[in-house]
Amino acid sequence: TPTSGCRSSSSSCQNYTSFAYKGYRCRCSAGYQGNPYVVDGCQDIDECAHWELHSCYGTCINMPGAFRCQCPDETYGNPFMKGGCIKNKSLSIGLVASGGSILVLLAFGAPFVTRKIKQQKAKKRKDKFFKQNHGLLFQQLVSQRADMGERMIITLAELEKATNNFDKTREVGGGGHGIVYKGILDLQVVAIKKSKIIVQREIDDFINEVAILSQINHRNVVKLIGCCLEAEVPLLVYEFISNGTLEHHLHVEGSVSLSWNDRLRIALEISTALAYLHSAASIPVYHRDIKSANILLDESLTAKVSDFGASKFIPIDQTGVTTAVQGTIGYLDPMYYYTGRLTDKSDVFSFGVLLVELLTRKRPLAYDSVDGDSLVLHFASLVTGSVLADLLDPQVMEEEDGEVQEVAALAAKCVRLNGEDRPAMREVEMTLENLRIKRKQAARDAKSRRYDDDGQFSIDDTAT
Question: Which residue ranges traverse the bilayer (predicted)?
Answer without folding.
Answer: 91-113
